Amino acid sequence: MSKTTEKMNWFQSLRERYARPRSLHNIGVLGMNRRNVSYISRYNPRRLFPLVDDKLQTKELALDAGVKVPALLGVIREQHAVKNLAAILEQCHGGFCIKPAHGSGGKGILVITRQSEEGYRRSNGQYATIGDLERHVSNILAGLFSLGGRTDAAIIEALIHFDDCFNGFSYEGVPDTRVIVFRGFPVMAMMRLSTSVSNGKANLHQGAVGVGLDIGNGRALRAVQFDKPILLHPDTGLNMMSLKVPHWEEVLNLAVSCYEMSGLGYLGTDIVLDKYEGPMLLELNARPGLTIQIANGKGLLPRLQQIEKLGHKKRMSIADRVAYAREHFSDNH
Length: 333
Fold this sequence. Notes:
The protein is built from 11 helices and 13 strands.
Protein backbone atom coordinates (compact mmCIF):
# COMPACT_ATOMS: atom_id res chain seq x y z
CA MET A 1 0.00 0.00 0.00
CA SER A 2 1.37 3.43 -0.95
CA LYS A 3 1.93 6.18 1.58
CA THR A 4 -0.84 8.21 -0.09
CA THR A 5 -3.35 5.36 0.25
CA GLU A 6 -2.29 4.77 3.86
CA LYS A 7 -2.84 8.45 4.65
CA MET A 8 -6.27 8.50 2.94
CA ASN A 9 -7.43 5.44 4.88
CA TRP A 10 -6.12 6.95 8.08
CA PHE A 11 -8.10 10.19 7.77
CA GLN A 12 -11.21 8.45 6.44
CA SER A 13 -11.31 6.29 9.58
CA LEU A 14 -10.83 9.22 11.92
CA ARG A 15 -13.45 11.38 10.18
CA GLU A 16 -16.05 8.91 11.36
CA ARG A 17 -15.35 10.04 14.91
CA TYR A 18 -14.23 13.65 14.48
CA ALA A 19 -15.84 16.20 12.16
CA ARG A 20 -13.01 18.69 11.64
CA PRO A 21 -9.23 18.50 11.13
CA ARG A 22 -8.81 20.75 14.18
CA SER A 23 -10.46 18.02 16.24
CA LEU A 24 -7.68 15.63 15.20
CA HIS A 25 -5.13 18.19 16.31
CA ASN A 26 -6.88 18.67 19.64
CA ILE A 27 -6.68 14.98 20.54
CA GLY A 28 -3.00 14.82 19.63
CA VAL A 29 -3.09 12.78 16.45
CA LEU A 30 0.35 12.61 14.83
CA GLY A 31 0.05 13.05 11.06
CA MET A 32 2.41 11.64 8.47
CA ASN A 33 4.09 14.92 7.50
CA ARG A 34 4.80 15.86 11.10
CA ARG A 35 6.03 12.35 11.85
CA ASN A 36 8.44 12.52 8.91
CA VAL A 37 9.78 16.01 9.60
CA SER A 38 9.65 16.40 13.39
CA TYR A 39 10.49 12.86 14.48
CA ILE A 40 11.93 10.58 11.79
CA SER A 41 14.17 13.19 10.13
CA ARG A 42 15.11 14.82 13.41
CA TYR A 43 15.82 11.77 15.54
CA ASN A 44 16.81 9.05 13.06
CA PRO A 45 20.16 9.64 11.31
CA ARG A 46 19.90 8.34 7.75
CA ARG A 47 23.23 6.54 8.06
CA LEU A 48 21.56 4.18 10.55
CA PHE A 49 18.61 3.23 8.32
CA PRO A 50 20.41 0.25 6.71
CA LEU A 51 20.73 -1.33 10.14
CA VAL A 52 16.95 -1.76 10.33
CA ASP A 53 15.98 -1.87 6.65
CA ASP A 54 18.14 -4.99 6.28
CA LYS A 55 16.71 -7.73 8.53
CA LEU A 56 19.99 -9.62 8.40
CA GLN A 57 21.93 -6.61 9.69
CA THR A 58 19.30 -6.12 12.40
CA LYS A 59 19.68 -9.73 13.52
CA GLU A 60 23.48 -9.52 13.57
CA LEU A 61 23.30 -6.23 15.48
CA ALA A 62 20.94 -7.79 18.03
CA LEU A 63 23.13 -10.86 18.48
CA ASP A 64 26.17 -8.65 19.11
CA ALA A 65 24.18 -6.64 21.68
CA GLY A 66 22.88 -9.74 23.45
CA VAL A 67 19.26 -9.05 22.42
CA LYS A 68 17.24 -12.25 22.07
CA VAL A 69 16.16 -13.06 18.50
CA PRO A 70 14.99 -16.21 16.66
CA ALA A 71 17.95 -18.47 15.85
CA LEU A 72 19.60 -17.87 12.48
CA LEU A 73 19.84 -21.18 10.57
CA GLY A 74 21.34 -19.93 7.34
CA VAL A 75 21.59 -17.21 4.70
CA ILE A 76 21.52 -17.54 0.91
CA ARG A 77 22.85 -14.52 -0.96
CA GLU A 78 23.51 -15.79 -4.50
CA GLN A 79 21.60 -17.89 -7.01
CA HIS A 80 24.26 -20.61 -7.28
CA ALA A 81 23.91 -21.18 -3.50
CA VAL A 82 20.21 -22.09 -3.71
CA LYS A 83 21.26 -25.72 -4.11
CA ASN A 84 22.53 -25.56 -0.49
CA LEU A 85 19.01 -25.00 0.87
CA ALA A 86 18.27 -28.71 1.41
CA ALA A 87 21.47 -29.12 3.43
CA ILE A 88 20.58 -26.12 5.60
CA LEU A 89 17.09 -27.49 6.26
CA GLU A 90 18.43 -30.94 7.20
CA GLN A 91 19.92 -29.32 10.30
CA CYS A 92 16.50 -28.00 11.27
CA HIS A 93 14.42 -30.77 12.84
CA GLY A 94 11.38 -28.58 13.49
CA GLY A 95 9.76 -25.69 11.68
CA PHE A 96 11.47 -22.72 10.13
CA CYS A 97 10.84 -19.45 8.35
CA ILE A 98 12.27 -18.14 5.08
CA LYS A 99 12.15 -14.37 4.61
CA PRO A 100 13.71 -11.66 2.42
CA ALA A 101 16.29 -9.46 4.11
CA HIS A 102 14.79 -6.32 2.56
CA GLY A 103 11.12 -7.27 2.52
CA SER A 104 8.31 -5.13 3.86
CA GLY A 105 4.70 -5.61 4.92
CA GLY A 106 5.16 -9.34 5.47
CA LYS A 107 5.77 -9.98 1.76
CA GLY A 108 7.85 -13.02 0.87
CA ILE A 109 7.71 -14.61 4.32
CA LEU A 110 7.22 -18.37 4.08
CA VAL A 111 6.49 -20.24 7.31
CA ILE A 112 6.99 -24.01 7.55
CA THR A 113 5.54 -25.54 10.71
CA ARG A 114 7.06 -29.02 10.33
CA GLN A 115 8.82 -31.44 8.01
CA SER A 116 7.58 -34.94 7.19
CA GLU A 117 7.57 -37.55 4.44
CA GLU A 118 4.74 -35.60 2.82
CA GLY A 119 6.98 -32.58 2.47
CA TYR A 120 7.20 -29.19 4.19
CA ARG A 121 3.94 -28.23 5.89
CA ARG A 122 3.09 -24.55 5.52
CA SER A 123 1.20 -22.53 8.13
CA ASN A 124 -1.96 -22.79 5.98
CA GLY A 125 -1.85 -26.60 6.06
CA GLN A 126 -0.65 -27.06 2.48
CA TYR A 127 2.56 -28.95 1.70
CA ALA A 128 5.52 -27.71 -0.30
CA THR A 129 8.41 -29.60 -1.90
CA ILE A 130 12.08 -28.70 -1.73
CA GLY A 131 11.65 -27.49 -5.32
CA ASP A 132 8.91 -25.10 -4.19
CA LEU A 133 11.17 -23.74 -1.46
CA GLU A 134 14.09 -23.32 -3.86
CA ARG A 135 11.89 -21.37 -6.27
CA HIS A 136 10.74 -19.16 -3.42
CA VAL A 137 14.34 -18.45 -2.44
CA SER A 138 15.19 -17.67 -6.08
CA ASN A 139 12.31 -15.18 -6.17
CA ILE A 140 13.65 -13.54 -3.01
CA LEU A 141 17.13 -13.23 -4.52
CA ALA A 142 15.65 -11.68 -7.67
CA GLY A 143 14.05 -8.93 -5.58
CA LEU A 144 10.43 -9.98 -6.06
CA PHE A 145 9.55 -9.05 -2.46
CA SER A 146 12.16 -6.40 -1.67
CA LEU A 147 11.80 -2.64 -1.39
CA GLY A 148 12.31 -1.13 -4.84
CA GLY A 149 12.82 -4.56 -6.44
CA ARG A 150 16.50 -4.61 -5.44
CA THR A 151 18.39 -7.90 -5.39
CA ASP A 152 18.04 -9.50 -2.00
CA ALA A 153 19.19 -12.24 0.36
CA ALA A 154 17.12 -15.06 1.84
CA ILE A 155 17.21 -15.57 5.61
CA ILE A 156 16.34 -18.94 7.12
CA GLU A 157 15.57 -18.79 10.82
CA ALA A 158 14.05 -21.03 13.48
CA LEU A 159 10.28 -21.14 13.82
CA ILE A 160 8.70 -19.15 16.63
CA HIS A 161 6.34 -21.18 18.83
CA PHE A 162 3.90 -18.60 20.07
CA ASP A 163 2.79 -18.79 23.67
CA ASP A 164 -0.34 -20.84 24.43
CA CYS A 165 -1.89 -17.79 26.10
CA PHE A 166 -2.56 -16.43 22.60
CA ASN A 167 -4.55 -19.45 21.42
CA GLY A 168 -7.67 -18.21 19.64
CA PHE A 169 -6.42 -14.64 19.35
CA SER A 170 -4.59 -15.24 16.09
CA TYR A 171 -5.45 -17.30 12.99
CA GLU A 172 -2.55 -19.56 11.91
CA GLY A 173 0.16 -16.90 12.06
CA VAL A 174 2.37 -15.77 14.94
CA PRO A 175 1.05 -12.67 16.75
CA ASP A 176 3.51 -9.87 17.44
CA THR A 177 3.62 -6.77 19.62
CA ARG A 178 4.58 -3.40 18.14
CA VAL A 179 6.03 -0.95 20.66
CA ILE A 180 6.86 2.62 19.60
CA VAL A 181 10.01 3.77 21.38
CA PHE A 182 10.91 7.46 21.47
CA ARG A 183 14.23 8.64 22.90
CA GLY A 184 14.40 5.41 24.89
CA PHE A 185 10.83 5.54 26.29
CA PRO A 186 8.04 3.14 25.27
CA VAL A 187 5.20 5.48 24.34
CA MET A 188 2.52 3.32 22.68
CA ALA A 189 1.92 -0.36 21.94
CA MET A 190 -0.39 -2.68 20.08
CA MET A 191 -0.64 -6.37 19.23
CA ARG A 192 -1.13 -7.50 15.63
CA LEU A 193 -3.16 -10.68 15.19
CA SER A 194 -3.43 -12.55 11.91
CA THR A 195 -6.71 -13.56 10.28
CA SER A 196 -7.84 -15.70 7.37
CA VAL A 197 -8.21 -12.51 5.32
CA SER A 198 -4.58 -11.56 6.03
CA ASN A 199 -3.46 -15.09 5.05
CA GLY A 200 -1.95 -15.71 8.45
CA LYS A 201 0.18 -12.54 8.29
CA ALA A 202 0.21 -10.02 11.12
CA ASN A 203 -0.17 -7.14 8.66
CA LEU A 204 -2.93 -4.62 9.39
CA HIS A 205 -3.21 -3.42 5.79
CA GLN A 206 -3.88 -7.01 4.69
CA GLY A 207 -6.65 -7.51 7.26
CA ALA A 208 -4.94 -8.48 10.50
CA VAL A 209 -6.50 -7.28 13.76
CA GLY A 210 -4.77 -4.49 15.67
CA VAL A 211 -5.30 -4.42 19.43
CA GLY A 212 -4.26 -1.30 21.34
CA LEU A 213 -2.45 -2.16 24.57
CA ASP A 214 -2.28 -0.28 27.85
CA ILE A 215 1.39 0.66 28.17
CA GLY A 216 1.07 0.20 31.93
CA ASN A 217 0.01 -3.43 32.06
CA GLY A 218 -0.27 -4.90 28.54
CA ARG A 219 -4.06 -5.27 28.62
CA ALA A 220 -6.25 -4.74 25.57
CA LEU A 221 -7.83 -1.30 25.20
CA ARG A 222 -9.47 -1.45 21.78
CA ALA A 223 -9.43 -3.68 18.69
CA VAL A 224 -9.73 -2.75 15.01
CA GLN A 225 -9.71 -4.47 11.63
CA PHE A 226 -9.36 -2.38 8.48
CA ASP A 227 -9.46 0.62 10.85
CA LYS A 228 -12.97 -0.30 12.08
CA PRO A 229 -13.60 -1.15 15.75
CA ILE A 230 -14.38 -4.81 16.46
CA LEU A 231 -14.94 -6.84 19.62
CA LEU A 232 -14.57 -10.46 18.49
CA HIS A 233 -11.83 -12.07 16.39
CA PRO A 234 -13.37 -12.53 12.91
CA ASP A 235 -12.24 -16.18 12.66
CA THR A 236 -12.19 -17.55 16.20
CA GLY A 237 -14.90 -15.42 17.82
CA LEU A 238 -12.71 -14.75 20.85
CA ASN A 239 -13.33 -11.51 22.75
CA MET A 240 -10.38 -9.24 21.99
CA MET A 241 -10.83 -7.34 25.24
CA SER A 242 -9.77 -10.42 27.22
CA LEU A 243 -6.27 -10.19 25.74
CA LYS A 244 -3.36 -9.48 28.08
CA VAL A 245 0.30 -9.81 27.10
CA PRO A 246 2.28 -11.73 29.76
CA HIS A 247 5.85 -10.80 30.75
CA TRP A 248 4.88 -7.22 29.95
CA GLU A 249 7.74 -5.54 31.78
CA GLU A 250 10.20 -7.83 29.99
CA VAL A 251 8.60 -6.93 26.65
CA LEU A 252 9.02 -3.20 27.37
CA ASN A 253 12.60 -3.67 28.59
CA LEU A 254 13.44 -5.50 25.37
CA ALA A 255 11.83 -2.78 23.25
CA VAL A 256 13.69 0.00 25.07
CA SER A 257 17.03 -1.82 24.80
CA CYS A 258 16.68 -1.47 21.01
CA TYR A 259 17.11 2.30 21.40
CA GLU A 260 20.63 1.84 22.73
CA MET A 261 21.31 -0.95 20.25
CA SER A 262 20.24 0.92 17.11
CA GLY A 263 20.89 4.58 17.94
CA LEU A 264 17.48 5.49 16.47
CA GLY A 265 15.48 8.02 18.46
CA TYR A 266 12.08 7.16 16.98
CA LEU A 267 11.48 3.54 16.08
CA GLY A 268 9.01 0.68 16.02
CA THR A 269 10.04 -2.57 17.69
CA ASP A 270 8.27 -5.81 16.74
CA ILE A 271 8.41 -8.39 19.50
CA VAL A 272 7.11 -11.96 19.64
CA LEU A 273 6.49 -14.13 22.69
CA ASP A 274 7.92 -17.61 22.26
CA LYS A 275 6.54 -20.28 24.63
CA TYR A 276 10.06 -21.58 25.29
CA GLU A 277 12.31 -18.53 24.90
CA GLY A 278 10.02 -15.72 26.10
CA PRO A 279 10.03 -12.26 24.42
CA MET A 280 12.22 -12.04 21.31
CA LEU A 281 12.91 -9.23 18.87
CA LEU A 282 11.54 -9.92 15.40
CA GLU A 283 12.55 -6.72 13.61
CA LEU A 284 12.92 -2.95 13.87
CA ASN A 285 11.32 -0.18 11.84
CA ALA A 286 12.79 3.31 11.43
CA ARG A 287 9.52 4.57 9.89
CA PRO A 288 6.76 2.99 12.01
CA GLY A 289 3.25 3.54 10.72
CA LEU A 290 0.53 5.64 12.32
CA THR A 291 -2.31 3.12 12.56
CA ILE A 292 -1.21 2.27 16.09
CA GLN A 293 -3.11 5.45 17.05
CA ILE A 294 -6.33 4.02 15.61
CA ALA A 295 -5.82 0.77 17.51
CA ASN A 296 -5.32 2.70 20.75
CA GLY A 297 -7.99 5.31 20.10
CA LYS A 298 -5.65 8.16 21.00
CA GLY A 299 -2.89 10.27 19.48
CA LEU A 300 0.85 9.86 19.86
CA LEU A 301 1.74 13.54 19.88
CA PRO A 302 1.07 14.38 23.57
CA ARG A 303 3.28 11.51 24.70
CA LEU A 304 6.09 12.43 22.32
CA GLN A 305 5.96 16.05 23.44
CA GLN A 306 6.03 15.01 27.09
CA ILE A 307 9.22 13.03 26.50
CA GLU A 308 10.76 15.96 24.61
CA LYS A 309 10.08 18.23 27.59
CA LEU A 310 12.11 15.93 29.82
CA GLY A 311 15.20 16.86 27.84
CA HIS A 312 18.42 15.45 29.21
CA LYS A 313 18.14 16.76 32.75
CA LYS A 314 19.30 13.42 34.07
CA ARG A 315 20.28 10.09 32.63
CA MET A 316 17.73 7.37 33.21
CA SER A 317 18.29 3.63 33.08
CA ILE A 318 16.19 1.31 30.92
CA ALA A 319 14.24 0.28 34.02
CA ASP A 320 13.64 3.94 34.96
CA ARG A 321 12.35 4.81 31.48
CA VAL A 322 10.03 1.81 31.42
CA ALA A 323 8.71 2.70 34.88
CA TYR A 324 8.15 6.32 33.81
CA ALA A 325 6.14 5.27 30.75
CA ARG A 326 4.06 2.75 32.68
CA GLU A 327 3.19 5.42 35.24
CA HIS A 328 2.50 8.36 32.93
CA PHE A 329 1.08 6.72 29.79
CA SER A 330 -1.12 4.04 31.30
CA ASP A 331 -4.81 4.24 30.42
CA ASN A 332 -5.49 4.10 34.14
CA HIS A 333 -3.33 7.16 34.80
